[in-house]
């Protein structure tokens, strides 16, 4: 059934599918780990049972999300060997050590303290348990650091040489490789996106339960904390995103041209195209809604600044415009929607109606999945804009793939789709079920009773009189 289909297209579709699923869970667990550290810190400082209840509620959800993120990440790594072996061979001397550092620092840190965080509150002191929670939060951030450094190097490679075997090898200093030109912007932008994604899920949970009972103290606190995050961090994200865009214009101009829909150059100021239909055959935008010269103002801070278009880029080096144009608008549109929700919550808070406006709560519930959609749209914008390269300007995608036949790649793609929707669908359903129950006073911990293995039976707490253990 896959005869005649380009195996490279299938390999790209498979990686896009698996990484999109994977990206959902780290974008949630990074923010949730920090939120848990804040909650436990507030509990230790104030002694209020309210914070401990909320902590115990969200730590159960974190455990499920973290596990699904780990499993989906492992699957992705195998694809580098099966579908992208040429890419792995050529970039291994650079990307391999970066991924190894992620395992040696972040993953070991998370794995070492995760058990204490999930099961150790009654077994270790409060301060040690808080330390474990903080270490897990730090571990998620370190993991993002190394992964985004590796990914950013693929977009803005530097500090490398090419050896006789055609491999990229480090030349000069690893610091040059790690802190490549796009890394600081991409790292900050992605981590903030994770915090906003988490705040929307937390806010939607609080809003859902406020709609059922606006006097619920747990729902009030959850919703209030989430709306503070949206109100404060969303405008920061808009600023960081703008700076990231300027960096992209400098190092990957073709990506920005496609994002803006600029098929043609504009020597006297480029318009900001709000909406339109890219026509790749005629190389033009149709049914355009635009604001004259505003794109030049945003990108060059000058209304009349000239902006080059895709007509200056060879056809075989242009990214696909339609995907980039729309994914970028989905990301930006949702970003401003999050900003609007934060402003709305500030107005409600100022008027003393934060817990009394049902339409605000309905909007909070509706915006719950918006962060996940925005981060996936952002990932599509970033990675599609790198095409037709895997290492920008140096290694093309068509030269990175393994010598596989289309049926082999297609069969594994179908298997991934079926297994992912079954396994992660059940996991997501379980998380939603936990969220639907809400937080209760005296929230219990994760069950830490001994696991019964085959052929064993736990001893009773008190043996019958005269019977020895």
UniProtKB/TrEMBL annotation:
Keywords: Cell membrane, Electron transport, Heme, Iron, Membrane, Metal-binding, Transmembrane, Transmembrane helix, Transport. It comes from the Bacteria. Residues 446-469 are annotated as: Disordered. This is Cytochrome ubiquinol oxidase subunit I. Its main location: membrane. InterPro entries: Cyt-d_ubiquinol_oxidase_su_1 (IPR002585). The chain crosses the membrane at residues 20-45, 57-78, 98-121, 128-148, 187-210, 222-240, 323-347, 359-380, 404-432. It is a multi-pass membrane protein. It comes from Sphingomonas psychrolutea. It is found in: Cell inner membrane; Cell membrane. Belongs to the cytochrome ubiquinol oxidase subunit 1 family.
